[in-house]
Design brief:
Blueprint (H helix, E strand, L loop, with lengths): L3 E16 L2 E10 L2 E8 L3 E6 H13 L5 E8 L5 E7 L2 H14 L10 H7 L6 E11 L2 E11 L12 E8 L5 E7 L4 E6 L8 E4 L2 H15 L3 E4 L2 H16 L13 E2 L7 E2 L4 E4 H7 L9 H9 L10 H11 L1 H21 L2 H12 L9 H15 L27 E3 L2 E6 L2 H9 L3 H7 L6 E2 L5 E2 L6 H17 L3 H18 L9 H24 L3 E6 L2 E5 L6 H25 L8 E7 L2 E3 L13 E4 L5 E4 L10 H15 L5 H13 L8 E4 L13 H12 L10 E7 L2 E4 L13 H14 L2 H4 L3 H10 L2
Parallel strand pairs: 3-8, 9-13, 11-12, 13-16
Antiparallel strand pairs: 1-2, 1-7, 2-3, 4-6, 5-6, 7-8, 9-10, 10-11, 14-15, 17-24, 18-22, 18-23, 19-20, 21-22, 24-25, 25-26, 27-28, 28-29
Helix pairs in contact: 7-9, 8-9, 10-15, 11-15, 12-14, 12-16, 14-15, 18-21
Length: 780
C-alpha cells in the first residue's frame, strides 16, 4: 500500500546526482517531526541558446550522441533575440552538452545555475518548503520518494528547535590528531588519544583511528542538524577528512550514513548530507560585525569577556607540549574553545540570523556572503515569467566607471548645534521611486514614456521587479521591527542594501553601469537639492556624505528648539519630494529623518591645510556621548596615548575649558617616561613574514629583529604585534612589559601621536602646537 505524507520544514542541504542514468535531486529538511529526506525524480537539466544557433547546436549534439529535448520557447534575450531551450535527463548528458557547445562555439545561457537550486527558485521556495511524496520511515528518518516541493509560508523553525553541536579539534603541526571536542547545552565531551583519569566530560581512546571512529559514533548518537565551529570547514573538517583518508577510515558523518566530502570548490566546499556546517568567522563577517581580529580569542574577549586557555606566544608549540605532558590541560583547552564558539553563536543569535537570511534569499544556511547569488535567486524566476532569460556575465552592452556616493566639501570649525538629517535607506528608496531594474532598463529603452535615468538609461514605469521586491522587504522589515524581531529586521536591512552593490558589481550577470550610475547620480542630485532646501529655509549646511546632511543652527539654541527645527526641515524636505515626484507621475519612497543633534560639534581641517576634512568629525550627541568618526580615538592603529589625549582634549574643547596647560602637561609627562605604558602600537600581520621584502613596516621590522635574538619564536599572518618605537628602531614586546625597553623615542610620539591631534584643532583653539612645546622647553 502506497502511503503519501506531507511535511513542512527548513531546508538544510541539497544534492544533485545521476542514478540509473537519471537526474535525482535530494533535499534534507528539518521539520517539527524530525529530519526528512526528500527525493525528487523526473526533472531535467536545462540550458538556453539563441534560436539562430539552435539548429547548429542540435546537429552537434546529435553527432556526439547526446540525448536531448529541444523546445522553442516564448523567451527572449535582453537583445530581443528569440531563445530555444535544451533539456537533458541526466547530469552526464548535461555536462557533455556544455562541452560540445564550447567546441562548436555556441553560447549557452544560465548554464551555471545548479539544478537543485533552479528547482527551488522557480517555485519561489526560500529557506523552507512543503514536501509531499510517497512515505517510508527508514534509519530513523522520514523519507519521501517521487516527491514534489512547494513554497511554505509557515513560520520557520527557530535556532533552539535545531540540534546544534559546537566542534573543535586539536592536532600537531603536521596534522596528527590529538583530540576532538563537542559542546552544546546538554552534552560536553572531549575525546582524546592516550590514557588518564576518567572524567564525565573526558573520554580516552588508543589512537587516531579509534578517535575518528568515536567521532562518527558520537555524531550518529547526537544526530545534529547543525555543526558550528571556528574556521571549522577549512581547518577542522578538512583536517579530519585528510587524516581519515590517510588512515583508511570512512567518515560516515552525514545522515543515512553518507560520507563527509571536502573539495577545493569555493562554494559547497563541504558536503555533509542532512547536516549544515556553519563557520563562526564567516557568520560574523557576513552579518557585518567588526572586530580588531577575527581570531577566536579576540572575538570571545570582545563579546564575552572570556579568553582561550592558551594565550600568546607559540600556541602550536604549547598544544604539542601539553599533549605530551599535560593532556588534561589540553582537554580543558579543547572544550573551552568549543564553549566559546557556542557562546558567541548564542550571544549574536547567529543561527537565527542564518535562518532569517535563508528565508529571505533562498540560499543555503551557510551561504551568507552570496549577495549576487541571492539577487539571482530572487530575480530570475520573475524574469522568466516576464519572458526573458538572464544574460551571461560580461554581457553588458556598455562599459564605463560608475561614480560613488556623494560627499560634500565640509566647512571646518567648531559649532554649537549641528543637526544630522539622514535619508532612510537612500539607495533602496531611489530604486523603488525611479523603478531602477535590469529588465526595466531593457523595456524602458523601447518605451516613449519611460523614466529618465543617467548616462542614457531609461526605465519602464510598469515592467520591473526590484522596486516591488524592495517594497516587500521594506514592509517585512517594518513588521519585524514592530514584532521586535531584531534578527529578521537586521537580515532584511543587509539584503536591501546589497541590491545597489550587486547591480554595480561586474561579478553579477545583470551588471550594467547605467543601472548603478542611475542610483548614485540620482543620490548626488537628491543630496544637492536637499542642501538647497535647507539653505532656503535659512540654515547652513556644513557637510554631507552619501545620505546624511549636517546642518548648523546658529546661536545658543536649546535642545527643544533644535528638535523643532529638525522636525520642520524633515517635513519640508519630505513634502517637497512628494509633490515634485508626483508631478512626474512617481510615488516618492524618499524619506529623510532627523537622526541626531550634536551639541557641540567639531569638523576638523585636513592636516596642514585650511580646507575641511571628509568623514572625520566629533561631537556630543543628544544622549550626551562623545562621538568620534574617522578620528584617532575611533581607530585601532593609534596608541592609547593618542586616543586618551584626543578624548580629553575634545572634552575640554566642548566644555570651554582651557587646553594649553593640559597639552603642556601631557608633553612633559611623555618626555619624563610617565606615559610609557600608553605608547604601545598594536598592529596585525597582514601576510606571512617572508612576504615582506621591500617596504618593511615598523611592526614587521620589530618582529624580524626579535627573531634574530629568539630564533624559536613563531608568528603567523593574522597575529597581533605589540611594539614600541625607540631610538634604535621598533622593538617587539613579547610579554607586553614596556619597563624593559630602553631609549624610547619620545620625539617620535610627540610628532606622530600628539602633534597631529592638536594641529586639527589649532584654528579653533587659537594656538600653535610647535610654539607651545617650544615655550615649554625654554622654561627648562
Amino acid at each position: 500500500m502506497v502511503i503519501e505524507r506531507t511535511f513542512s520544514g527548513l531546508i538544510l542541504t541539497k544534492q544533485q546526482f545521476d542514478r540509473d542514468g537519471k537526474l535525482t535531486l535530494v533535499f534534507w529538511l528539518k521539520s517539527k517531526e524530525g529530519p526528512v529526506r526528500v527525493e525528487v525524480t523526473g526533472e531535467q537539466a536545462v540550458v538556453f541558446c539563441l534560436s539562430e544557433d539552435a539548429k547548429w547546436y542540435a546537429d552537434a549534439l546529435n553527432r556526439e550522441g547526446i540525448a536531448f529535448e529541444q523546445k522553442s520557447l516564448s523567451l527572449k534575450h535582453f537583445n530581443q533575440s528569440n531563445v530555444s531551450g535544451f533539456y537533458f535527463t541526466s547530469l552526464k548528458a548535461f555536462f557533455a552538452a556544455k562541452e560540445t557547445a564550447n567546441e562548436v562555439g555556441v553560447t549557452l545561457y544560465e548554464q551555471d545555475i545548479r539544478h537543485a537550486e533552479r528547482y527551488l527558485m522557480e517555485r519561489f521556495i526560500q529557506g523552507q518548503a512543503w514536501a509531499k511524496g510517497q512515505y517510508k520511515f527508514s534509519q530513523g528518518v522520514h523519507c519521501l520518494y517521487q516527491a514534489k516541493l512547494a513554497k511554505s509560508e509557515q513560520a520557520s523553525l527557530a535556532a533552539h528547535e535545531l540540534t546544534c553541536v559546537s566542534l573543535d579539534i586539536e592536532c600537531s603541526g603536521l596534522g596528527v590528531l590529538y583530540s576532538i571536542g563537542f559542546y552544546n547545552a546538554n552534552y560536553q565531551k572531549v575525546v582524546m588519544i592516550g590514557q588518564g583519569e576518567n572524567h564525565e566530560w573526558l573520554e580516552w581512546v588508543a589512537d587516531e583511528t579509534a578517535l575518528l571512529k568515536r567521532f562518527v559514533a558520537i555524531t550518529q548518537e547526537l544526530d545534529p542538524d547543525v555543526f558550528i565551529g571556528w574556521n571549522v570547514i577549512d581547518f577542522d573538517f578538512s583536517m579530519l577528512a585528510k587524516r581519515a583518508e590517510a588512515l583508511g577510515v570512512t567518515l560516515s558523518l552525514g545522515r543515512f550514513a553518507s560520507q563527509l566530502r571536502v573539495t577545493q570548490s569555493k562554494i559547497n566546499k563541504l558536503n555533509l548530507p542532512g547536516r549544515m556546517v556553519l563557520d563562526g568567522i564567516d557568520m560574523l563577517k557576513n552579518a557585518s560585525y567588526h572586530f580588531s581580529s577575527f581570531r577566536l580569542g579576540q572575538v570571545s574577549y570582545e563579546l564575552l569577556g572570556e579568553e582561550k586557555l592558551i594565550q600568546g606566544g607559540d600556541t602550536l608549540a604549547e598544544i604539542e607540549r601539553q599533549f605530551k605532558h599535560e593532556k588534561l590541560a589540553l582537554a580543558k583547552y579543547n572544550l573551552q574553545d568549543c564553549k566559546l564558539v557556542w557562546d558567541i553563536f548564542q550571544n549574536k543569535s547567529l543561527i537565527d540570523f542564518a535562518i532569517a537570511r535563508s528565508k529571505l534569499t533562498g540560499l543555503d544556511l551557510n551561504r551568507l556572503g552570496g549577495s549576487v547569488a541571492a539577487f539571482t535567486n530572487l530575480y530570475l524566476p520573475h524574469l522568466h515569467r516576464a519572458g526573458y532569460i538572464a544574460p551571461n556575465l560580461g554581457d553588458s552592452p556598455v562599459q564605463f566607471e560608475s561614480p560613488g556616493g556623494y560627499v560634500m566639501d565640509s566647512l571646518p570649525g567648531l559649532y554649537q548645534n549641528v543637526l544630522v538629517l539622514d535619508y532612510k535607506s537612500l539607495y533602496p528608496s531611489i530604486i523603488r521611486t525611479f523603478k531602477i531594474d535590469p529588465m526595466g532598463l531593457v523595456e524602458g529603452l523601447m518605451e516613449d514614456d519611460a523614466i529618465e535615468g543617467f548616462n542614457g538609461a531609461q526605465f519602464s514605469r510598469t515592467k520591473h521587479f526590484i522596486p516591488s521586491l524592495i517594497s516587500q522587504l521594506w514592509q517585512a522589515r517594518e513588521a519585524a521591527k514592530k514584532a521586535k524581531d531584531e534578527t529578521m529586521s537586521y537580515a532584511i536591512k543587509i539584503i536591501m542594501n546589497s541590491f545597489y552593490g550587486v547591480l554595480g558589481s561586474t561579478g553579477c550577470r545583470f551588471y550594467d553601469p547605467r543601472l548603478s550610475s542611475s542610483i548614485t547620480m540620482r543620490g548626488h542630485e537628491i543630496m544637492k537639492k536637499t542642501k538647497q532646501l535647507i539653505e532656503k529655509a535659512g540654515y547652513q549646511v556644513i557637510y554631507g556624505d552619501t545620505d546624511s546632511t549636517f546642518v548648523s543652527i546658529d546661536g545658543e539654541a536649546c535642545k527643544a528648539t533644535c528638535n523643532d527645527i529638525g522636525k520642520q526641515l524633515v517635513n519640508k524636505i519630505n513634502s517637497y519630494w512628494q509633490a515634485e515626484l508626483s508631478e512626474k507621475g512617481l510615488d516618492s519612497a524618499l524619506e529623510i529623518e532627523f537622526e541626531t543633534h550634536y551639541q557641540p560639534f567639531f569638523m576638523p581641517t585636513l592636516r596642514g591645510e585650511t580646507t575641511g576634512s571628509k568623514k572625520r568629525y566629533a561631537g556630543i550627541n543628544q544622549d550626551g556621548e562623545l562621538i568620534f568618526k574617522g578620528l584617532e580615538a575611533a581607530r585601532g592603529d593609534w596608541t592609547r596615548l593618542a586616543k586618551e589625549f584626543q578624548t580629553e582634549l575634545y572634552q575640554r574643547l566642548f566644555s570651554n575649558q582651557a587646553v594649553d596647560e593640559y597639552i603642556t602637561q601631557q608633553v612633559s609627562a611623555l618626555k619624563s617616561g610617565a606615559l610609557d605604558d600608553k605608547l604601545v602600537y598594536r598592529k596585525r600581520l597582514g601576510q606571512e613574514l617572508e612576504m615582506y621584502r621591500r617596504n618593511i613596516p615598523p611592526h614587521v621590522r620589530a618582529v624580524l629583529d626579535y627573531q634574530l635574538k629568539h630564533p624559536d619564536f613563531f608568528i603567523k599572518r593574522g597575529d597581533w604585534v605589540n611594539y614600541l618605537v625607540t631610538l634604535d628602531g621598533p622593538v617587539y614586546l613579547a610579554e607586553g612589559d614596556v619597563s624593559e625597553v630602553n631609549r624610547i623615542d619620545y620625539q617620535h610620539y610627540l610628532d606622530k601621536q600628539l602633534k597631529p591631534i592638536v594641529e586639527a584643532l589649532e584654528k579653533a583653539l587659537m594656538l600653535n602646537f610647535e610654539q607651545l612645546v617650544n615655550e615649554q622647553q625654554s622654561l627648562f
